[in-house]
Amino acid sequence: MEITETSVKALLDKLALLRQEMRKVIVGQQQTIDELLIAFVAGGHCLLEGVPGLAKTLMIRTLAEAVHLTFRRIQFTPDLMPTDIIGTEILEEEHATGKRFFKFNHGPLFANIVLADEINRTPPKTQSALLEAMQEYAVTHGGETYKLERPFFVLATQNPIEQAGTYPLPEAQLDRFLLYIAIDYPGEKEEFDILASTTTNETSEVRPVVTAQDILDAQRLVRETHISEEMIHYVNRLVRATRPSASKIEYVKQWVRWGAGPRAGQAMILAAKARALLDGRFAVTLTDLKAMALPALRHRILINFKGEAERITSDEVTRELLQQIPEPRSPLER
Description:
By secondary structure, this protein is an alpha/beta fold. It has helices spanning about 5-25, 30-40, 55-65, 80-85, 125, 130-135, 170-175, 190-195, 210-225, 230-240, 250-255, 260-280, 285-295, 305-310, 315-325; strands at about 45-50, 65-70, 70-75, 85-95, 100-105, 115, 140, 145, 155-160, 180, 210, 255-260, 300-305. A five-stranded parallel beta sheet has the order 3-6-9-1-10.
């Protein structure tokens, strides 16, 4: 896309329509929808966690219906094998010559939007089959590398209850997710609206309003959104303060076993840029960074045994850091 004022405005209008289409079906959960779109536009992958019945799967399916992209759902189970998601070779015969040959049959990973439903119910070897696809946008089978079509967006869900017989995601794989979105119960008014709107014959039709090229253009525009050096220094201080070995904050030394790596800072900045762009702005503010701190750090700060015993969460650590880390000065203060 040639970046002009007119083309950028048209793209922002389409992204606004995408949000509206999702809100036609999803009652409430506005913050969750926004964070989901932020991860999508930023070009990252997303992990959603919430108890059953909070529309996690419906949210992702609605996003897929609102864009001109291919969508596949993979139900992760204990007996799922890597070849079930990547694909496998099948023996075929050429009818004219009778010659037999092996042909690679693409698995459900070969789609633009992939829903990995209940990802923590499958063993690590199948979970790890996602890693190359998520990081390299390619899969390897039989010595051959197959590129995945862009945009490629993995949305994984997991259930925080019924942990018996599940396989918690390894830290290395968690770090591949740009954002970790925790979905809470709806408010009383929202729950009433859900009950009233989902128990009748009336349905909302979702229109596809965004193309693959629109998403690719938006992802490029995200990286061109401005962020000042002061804001980058702030993110750097915040991420480094999560590490007990380097942090000067006693709260971290007391409760944290392992802090966030550089990918956490990248996630915060990219997500903040996407948030600004979706809001029609082309420069990141401190509000953008603070809003993205929790979903970007939630899965990258590991609480120690003492902290787990005291029910300390990574979100509480992040909130403490947001209060203690000095904020960048505004232009008027310089």
